[in-house]
Amino acid sequence: MSHNQDQLELSRIEINPAQPAKHTIIWLHGLGADGNDFAPIVPELQLPSAFAVRFIFPHAPTMPITINNGYEMRAWYDIASLAIDRSNVDYVGIAKSNAFINAMIEQEVTRGIPTENIILAGFSQGAVIALTTGLLYHQKLGGILALSGYLPPEALIKADPANKKIPIFLAHGSEDPVLPFALGMAAHAGLSEAGYQVDWHSYPIPHSVCAPEIHDMSRWIQKVWK
């Protein structure tokens, strides 16, 4: 086992409900951040205590990032260029992170959480991993929350039929200077054309999350798990 694998399996923030957990949300941060980035969102979602949700915020491994002159930071995969297209997506890195999240899902199953009670959520790079892991997973999951990310072209090709009907919450800021709004719209179009049920939301914000978005996410989660 590599150092990075060991680090990813052990390094996480976990927030447990007062009662035994019935649901799990695995939430993936963006480039250069860590699990602490979204941990504060838990009380803001104001989910009913009856849902008994366990939140897991894993820390991505540290790796050199090409676009940042090889500077090492926490990342789910390498980025060679801001131009997102089929030729420069780090599919090997994405697949490694998919495997890490698959292992976390399996761990939750051993802790008594059915796969359909597990939602994958992510922001930016984390959204890419939430989408790809969820679409490719071999058992039915509860849903995918993908914020300010994009959909690598290969994901729909390799998607598993088990999650063809997975609920997807897709959101993007119309003023995003990091991952342009067009990438979010393209993800929405690609998923919709492939027959997925997508709740699409846009907000007049940059590469960030806003209060109305958190409110909409909470409503969506409650609808999925009602």
Mean pLDDT metric: 92
* Rg, nearest Å: 16 Å
Global morphology? globular
What's the count of strands?
9
The end-to-end distance, rounded to whole angstroms, is: 40 Å
Please mark out the parts with pLDDT under 50 across 5 or more consecutive residues, or reply none: 1-8
Portion in strands: 15-25%
Q: So how many helices?
A: 7
Write the element-wise H/E pattern from the N-terminal end onward: HEEHEEEHEHEHEHEH
Largest sheet: 7 strands, mixed
Percent helix range = 25-40%
Class from helix and strand fractions: alpha/beta
Strand order of the main beta sheet, please? 1-3-2-6-7-8-9
SSE arrangement:
Blueprint: H1 3-10, E1 12-15, E2 23-28, H2 41-45, E3 53-58, E4 62-65, E5 71-74, H3 91-110, E6 118-123, H4 125-136, E7 143-147, H5 154-158, E8 168-173, H6 181-193, E9 198-203, H7 211-224
Parallel strand pairs: 2-3, 2-6, 6-7, 7-8, 8-9
Antiparallel strand pairs: 1-3, 4-5
